[in-house]
Amino acid sequence: MTMRKVINREPKVHTQLGRAAVQIFAANERMNQMLIEHLDPAAWRAKPPGKAGTRTIAAIFTHMHNVRTKWVRLTAPHLKAPSQLNRTHCTPQQARAGLAESAARCAEMLAEALGGRESGSAGYKGGEVHKNAGRVEKFLRDGWAKPWPVGPEMLCYMLAHEAHHRGQVCMLAHQLGFPLPIKVTSGIWNWEKLWKECGSPGGPGSDS
Length: 208
Fold this sequence. Notes:
The chain is mostly helical. Helices cover 54% and strands 4% of the residues. The protein is built from 6 helices and 4 strands, in the order H-H-H-E-E-E-E-H-H-H. The strands form 2 sheets. A two-stranded antiparallel ribbon has the order 1-2. A two-stranded antiparallel sheet has the order 3-4. Helix 1 (3-38) packs parallel to helix 4 (152-175). It is globular and about 45 Å long. The two termini are 30 Å apart.
C-alpha cells in the first residue's frame, strides 16, 4: 500500500469513529436519564448505609455532571462549559437538565476531537469538514493528569467513569429499599432501543 493511500484513508476512519462516539455518548446519557426518571424521589438524598461521607445518589449524579464540565473546560476551552451543580441543593429535575446540557457539550467535544458530525457546532456541515473539525487535540481528565492524544481511549475513559457511577446508583437504590424497576435495570442494556431513542434507527454498528 502506498503512502498516499494510507494518508487518504485516515480521515474516513477518524470520521466514522467520531460519529460513533457521538451516538455512543448520547446512548450513555439516555441511561442516566432513565435512572433519574424512574428513581423513587425518597432515594435522592437518602443517607447511604456504611461509613460517613459516602455519596448520596444526588451527590453521585451532580459529581458526574461536574466532572463533565471539567473535561470540557480543560479539553475544549473554546466550548462553553455548563454551570456546575450543587450537590446539596440539586433536585432530580435540575440534575436531568444539567446532565442533558453537559452531555451535549461532551458530544461536541468528542465530535471535534474524533472528526464526527453532531447537530449544532460539531465541526461538520453538510457532510463536509468544517473549519473547527479536529480543534481538540488533547484530552485532559484533570489539572493534575497528563494530557492524552485524542483517540478511542478518551471515549472509553469517559464511559467507564459514568458506568462506574451508574452501578453505584443502582446498588444504593437497592440498599436503601428503593430498587429501580426491572424495565430500567434491564433497559439500560437494550442498546438497540437506546440507539433508536437517541435518533439512530440503525442501532449499534450502523453509520446512521
